[in-house]
Design a protein that fits this description.
Arc Repressor Mutant, subunit A, seven-stranded antiparallel sheet, single chain, six-stranded antiparallel sheet, elongated, Beta-Lactamase, 20 strands
């Protein structure tokens, strides 16, 4: 019997408890937010609020930790001996990243944080027999199949690689990447966010499995799960989200009773009842391209092998995005034959607010910053009778404020198309060939500017 045979117990789906004694033999019990598997002989425990536990192990280095298998609920007991407390290094960073992501999502930043990763030697592992009563005869036994990567995953890698290589545009590449997460790897809820270097934010470009695409949503680098992955450029996997949220809210209530000022609680993005999440950085040539975030209602949807395996896919996707983003636009002067405009079925009022550089449509927010400046330019010139535009001219327009290097223009146009599709589907930016598009409308357009 090996410690690695109990990897499900380290996912955080079921809470773990630690028991210690001081020099006089007085016992103390506390709950743990993380028990981190290091190797067959060592684990690391999260030290956050355990003043009594820390005093006890300083006097008496032995401890007992009880874990539960989240599938079978079979408990096991680890007898441990304290070795050291780490406040830096890869183990501390990994454990701290997970806690920070939860803290930011529950308004506990600065309060719910890792003090140290306490490394213990595993002296013994005991499966506690007789702790569970026999299941009633009327219930059928549930024997879940082991979750292991196999030939189907290698086949999935080959198929996705082929799809990414065949994508001719960024929009097609984004669609293939997100669709493949569901069709090839069973991740039915996926979100792709791109890094905007000039503002230090991640911008949602597309998603799958949600009620709304969410294009244009922003996350600061370092904020929440996605922001933490962008900041550290390391994959981050969270399991047992419900248990972790209960734990942090209990700490939050205790802190509030002590009069501590806390930030407003921010609900988790995407699924409100997500049980597991996996976020992967997209990095190409040491440049952060974005973050691919997956989530599931299954608390064991993502395991250790998923993290390593899907990281390969993320690296390949990042390289493909970088290659298509850097590709030159078409340089021919082909024009699009004008088509008769349909009779307007309604009237749309677009409003430009110069103060925060945002565009509203019929009084509702649509887009801001660079995509808003692009849209306003297109609308004003369209009002003068123009239909066709090119990427090249947008890049040459200094008034749009595009960065001189890595302007992400194509991705900004994709974001703009999706925002129009979601909020104003009767006004469209339609690609006619690489680097060229037309503005189509099924409604009358009115423009106004406000400070």
């Amino acid at each position: 019997m090996k410690l690695s045979d109990f990897m499900h117990c380290f996912q955080g789906v079921t809470p773990a408890g630690i028991a210690t004694c001081d020099a006089d033999g007085t016992p103390n019990m506390a709950m743990l937010s993380q028990v981190y598997y290091l190797d067959e002989k060592h684990v690391a425990l999260s030290c956050q609020f355990f003043n009594k536990t820390r005093r006890n192990v300083d006097q008496n280095p032995f401890a007992s930790v009880r874990l539960w298998d989240p599938v079978t609920l079979q408990p096991c007991l680890l007898q441990l001996r304290f070795l050291r407390a780490e406040t830096s290094g890869p183990v501390f960073d990994e454990m701290s990243s997970r806690i920070d992501a939860i803290a930011r999502a529950t308004g506990m930043t600065g309060v719910f944080k890792l003090i140290s990763a306490d490394v213990y030697e595993v002296l013994s592992l005991t499966v506690l027999q007789g702790a569970l009563e026999p299941a009633p005869a009327t219930l059928l036994p549930w024997n879940p199949e082991p979750r292991q990567a196999g030939r189907e995953e290698l086949r999935g890698l080959q198929v996705l690689s082929d799809r990414l290589c065949r994508a001719r545009t960024l929009e097609a590449l984004y669609a293939e990447l997100l669709a493949s997460m569901a069709s090839l790897f069973g991740a039915s809820h996926a979100l792709l966010m791109l890094h905007e270097e000039d503002c230090g934010k991640l911008i949602a470009i597309d998603s799958r499995g949600y009620d709304r695409v969410g294009a244009g949503a922003e996350v600061k680098v370092g904020e929440g799960l996605v922001g933490t992955v962008a900041q550290t450029r390391r994959p981050l996997r969270l399991s047992g989200m419900a248990a972790m949220r209960r734990y942090t809210r209990a700490v939050r209530e205790s802190a509030q009773k002590r009069g501590m000022a806390l930030g407003a609680e921010i609900p988790l993005p995407g699924l409100s009842d997500a049980q597991s999440q996996l976020a992967l950085p997209l990095v190409a040539h040491d440049r952060l391209i974005g973050v691919l975030a997956l989530e599931s209602r299954d608390p064991l949807a993502f395991e250790e092998w998923h993290e390593a395996y899907l990281a390969l896919l993320a690296n390949q996707a990042a390289l493909a995005i970088a290659m298509l983003s850097d590709r030159e636009d078409e340089d021919d002067d082909a024009r699009v034959e004008p088509q008769p405009a349909p009779l307007p079925s309604r009237r749309r009022l677009f409003t430009w607010f110069a103060g925060d550089e945002s565009v509203f449509v019929d009084g509702e927010y649509l887009i801001r910053n660079v995509p808003a400046r692009i849209l306003w330019k297109l609308l004003r010139e369209h009002a003068q009778g123009r239909r066709e535009f090119s990427n090249r001219e947008l890049r040459m327009d200094e008034g749009l404020g595009l960065p001189p290097v890595k302007d992400n223009l194509e991705s900004r146009l994709i974001l703009l198309r999706k925002r129009l599709q979601e909020r104003c589907p009767d006004v469209r930016l339609v690609s006619v060939k690489r680097g060229r598009f037309v503005l189509e409308r099924d409604s009358e357009i009115a423009l106004e500017e406000k400070p």
